[in-house]
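Worked example

This section walks through a single chain of length 108. The input is the sequence exactly as stored; nothing has been trimmed or padded.
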Amino acid sequence: MSLDTPQAETRRERLTAHEALQRLEQERASRLTQLRAIDEARPNAEEQMMSTQKDTIRRVLTEVEAAFARVQDGSYGICRTCSKPIPVERLEILPYTPYCVPCQRDAA
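Given that input, the structure is written out below as tokens.
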């Protein structure tokens, strides 16, 4: 790689299926660990706060599972709204997202 090559040209457009699956497995394991920790802390923690956290973690786990299905059907990394590729940088941060940033903003 030349020092004159712009960084945008050196970045890949998409994650490979293997890379996507690895990131999703890590995300799933992390969320399951969080759920276990909440369950173990329950006697010492406020019930309402724990319930809210568990609901959020379960929602993310549902999104992670949906992302696994997108990897399998070949639609992973493609925005559900505009059908454009989701930038690799976004998928590295949020591997289960089904939307590019502009479409996510519009949905909010």
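What to look for: Helices lie at 7-10, 17-41, 47-73, 88-93, 101-107.
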